Each structure stands twice: as structure tokens, then as C-alpha cells.
Amino acid sequence: MASTCISRHMNAPRARVYKSLIDAGAIAKWKVPTGMTCQVHEFEGREGGAFRISLTYDEQTGTGKTTAQTDTYRGRFVTLVPNERVVEVDEFETANPALRSWRPRRFGFGRRRGRGARENRSATSS
After folding, report:
1. Measured between alpha carbons, how far is 115 from 42 in angstroms, rounded to an integer?
2. 109: Cβ–Cβ under 8 A, 6 or more apart, which residues?
3. Is residue 64, in this structure, part of any structural domain at all?
4. Among 25, 59, 80, 82, which residue's CB has the most CB atoms within a 10 Å radius?
5. What is the pTM of this model?
6. Does residue 79 form part of some domain?
7. Considering only CA atoms, which of 73, 68, 69, 78 is closest in space to residue 51?
């Protein structure tokens, strides 16, 4: 099975980053690609909690996975370790069977190593 790993350093306290992953209002603001709008239909920011989110293209593209303009996905939170880790699984609501498999997403709160590590420690300490 293929996998993809994306890493991004957030210059913010761990508690703020963690909250932004389990708060529906925050998700609607930041977890939306450029050129799309977000609608949170359901969101239980707790371990075992379910969510359902739609991302709608601002321009007429016809490339949506659920409808011509929209990608809707649903999922649940598998593991929540405050200020350390968020694990969720999600799947697109689509007629295309290739896009319907459950996809795990892991968000870790590791420390940045090497150059800039001192700044990272102060930015992520709570």
C-alpha cells in the first residue's frame, strides 16, 4: 500500500495547534484549500467522534469527487493525545470506488531538529 508523508512546521504553541485540529470552527477556516469553501456538517472533536465536511470549488471546475463542484468526506477521530497526536480516518463520499477507501491521517507534534530548534522549542512549549 502506498503512503504519503507531508511535514509542516507550525510556529505556534502545541495547545493551539491541537485545538485547531479538533475544533469545527477552526477546521472550517484553515483546513480548506485555496479556491474552495468549507462547510462542516457534523463534527465531534473527541476520540471516537465523527465528522462530515464538504469542500466546494469557488470556480466551475467539474472536478469534484461527490458532485461536479464538491468534495464531501466523512470520518472519525481514532486517537487524540492532547498536544501530541491526532489520528483520524476519512473517506470521500463518491460513486468512484477507487476514492472510497478509508484513509488514515496522522498529525504529530514532534520537535523540529537542527537549525532553528531553539526557536521551535520556545514556540511549542506550553
Report:
1. 41
2. 14, 17, 18, 83, 84, 85, 124
3. yes
4. 80
5. 0.78
6. yes
7. 73
